[in-house]
Every structure is written in C-alpha cells, then in structure tokens.
Amino acid sequence: MIKKTSLFSIFLLLATTVLPGFIHAEVDWQAKKTIKTDQTPLDIHVTADGKRTMVITEGGKLQIYDSNARLLDTIEVDPAFDILSADGTGGRVFLGNSKNNSILELQIEYIADFSYGGSPFLGNSDAPIVLAFFSDFQ
Predict the structure, then answer these.
(1) 7, 13, 22, 86: which sits with the fewest CB atoms below 10 Å from its CB?
(2) Taking the domains of the chain in order of start, what are their residue ranges?
(3) Which fold, 41-107?
(4) Going along the chain, which residue ranges are E strands?
(5) Whole-prediction pTM value?
(6) Using one digit for the tens of pLDDT, what is the confidence trace for 72-110?
C-alpha cells in the first residue's frame, strides 16, 4: 500500500511539472483605442494605473493622454530626446537622448479642476475665503 501511494505521489508530481509545458493556448485580443499624434511617435509609456499614456514624438513633443485617448497636454522638449520612461503615476518622467547619452528627469504635477458648486454651505456664498470642516469621519 505504501509503494502504491509513493508511486502515485511521484506520478502526480511529474504530471503537474511536465504536463503544463505541453498545453496549447491561444491568445484573444481586440483593438481598444487609437491615439493619433501630429508627429511620428518615437517612444510610448503607460502609467501603472493605466490613467495616462505618454508619447515622445519627433520634433520634441511630450504628449500626455488620458485613459480615453484624449490629449491632456503637450510639453515642448529638446527634439533630440527619443527615449521615454516614467514612474508608476507619471509624476517623474525620464527622457533619454541616445545620441549624446543623456537623460533628463521631469517632475510633472497634474492639476485637476474641482467644483464645489451645489455643495451645502453656511454663510455668504460670495465670501472670499471658504473654510470646510469635515466632522463626520469615523
């Protein structure tokens, strides 16, 4: 009985390590969005959260797109930069020049408009300063 259990254990171990290499798999894919740039793209980077796509193009443009492929901003840079990388959020962007072996680090701050219209308030709605107190946090 012990020999049968040992042989079965060895067979099971071999089956789990050898057989997955023989499994045939296919890849399913579909085109989601197309970003159309005004210049030839040289390099591309997508942030880890997928919220921004950055493209460095010929002519020295760093273009930043949102997740819906809408252009958020264009930053003019030295046309010699042809390599692009960034951190996970897109706050630190690295541009490389493969001809003179240099790297430029950019710090990018993303500014979002915030509307508080329609929010409850107490006092004059035209006051030059608004103080907000949040007391219902747990």
Answers:
(1) 22
(2) 41-107
(3) Thrombin, subunit H (2.40.10)
(4) 41-46, 52-57, 61-66, 71-76, 83-86, 92-97, 102-107
(5) 0.64
(6) 999 999 999 999 999 988 899 999 999 999 999 999 998
